[in-house]
Design goal:
- It contains 7 helices and 11 strands.
- The protein starts with a strand and ends with a strand.
- The chain is α/β, with parallel strands linked by helices.
- The chain has 2 domains: about 90 residues, Alpha-Beta Plaits; about 130 residues, 3-Layer(aba) Sandwich (Rossmann fold), CATH 3.40.50.
- The radius of gyration is 20 Å and the shape is elongated.
């Protein structure tokens, strides 16, 4: 069967056969068969999960299981046989394959700020306090190591643009997730957050949203996810004005 490694897994009940994952898999490892996305062959899947962020139903995950090793040459032959462009060597492949929780640009990783805010030298830009990557909720793996026991900040994606001291005020020692309750898939977010809440023993959650009415949806979906997860995690809600002022904070 092969050694245990990372490989994609498709939940057939969730998959609606839309095919959005197919072009995202540069190795040609996925095809639509009988109306569902399926893994053509284990040797074609590198386990990096470039297809994860393309699935509107959140039906694709990366799992660890016994599987045949990824075969770069077999992929090249497969791509040539199916009329697709052969792969170029990817300098990020080896690094990302060691911890393949997403595409090379979205692989889950913990970050260490170069300096605390009060240590920045005069005239220099204040250093980033971001402690994790990725931050977009749709891309964050449910089992990302930085989520376990985290103090979680769930922010509407407009907040960091409005709030000038967002990094200094809300990021030190916290894990950030961002999303838009108006433009993104709310049902997907509720399901994903419920799993994150249920499986990671979070210390606390703070929701940051803009004062505009549509942004309150972020609070509602977090509350729904907590209810669905059946866990009791301290929840704080902070409202930000469109001119960047903190309007208020409350315990929910």
């Amino acid at each position: 069967m092969g050694a245990t490694r990372k490989i994609v897994q498709i939940d057939e009940e969730r998959c609606n056969g839309c095919g959005q994952c197919i072009p995202a898999c540069h190795e040609g490892a996925l095809q639509i068969v009988d109306g569902k996305a399926r893994l053509v062959a284990e040797v074609y899947c590198d386990g990096l999960g470039n297809c994860l962020g393309e699935c509107p139903e959140d039906a694709i995950t990366v799992v660890e299981r016994p599987a045949r090793e990824f075969d770069f040459e077999a992929v090249q032959e497969h791509l040539a046989a199916t009329g697709r462009e052969r792969l170029k060597e990817n300098p990020l492949l080896a690094e990302a394959a060691a911890e393949p929780r997403g595409c090379p640009g979205a692989a889950a990783r913990a970050l260490a700020p170069a300096a605390a805010p009060d240590q920045a030298s005069a005239g220099e830009a204040e250093p980033s306090q971001l402690g994790n990557w990725p931050v977009q909720l749709r891309l964050v793996p449910i089992h990302a190591p930085y989520l376990q026991g985290a103090r979680l900040v769930i922010s509407a994606d407009c907040v960091p643009f409005a709030l000038a001291d967002f990094h200094r005020r809300f990021l030190p020692g916290r894990v950030l997730l961002v999303g838009c309750p108006k433009l993104d898939d709310v049902d997907l977010y509720v399901r994903k957050l419920a799993e994150i809440f249920k499986q990671n023993d979070l210390e606390s959650i703070e929701v940051l949203h803009m004062e505009v009415p549509c942004c309150f949806g972020l609070v509602h979906l977090v509350e729904q996810a907590l209810q669905d997860a059946g866990v009791d995690v301290p929840l704080t809600v902070t409202t930000i004005g469109v001119r960047g002022e903190v309007i208020g904070t409350r315990a929910a």
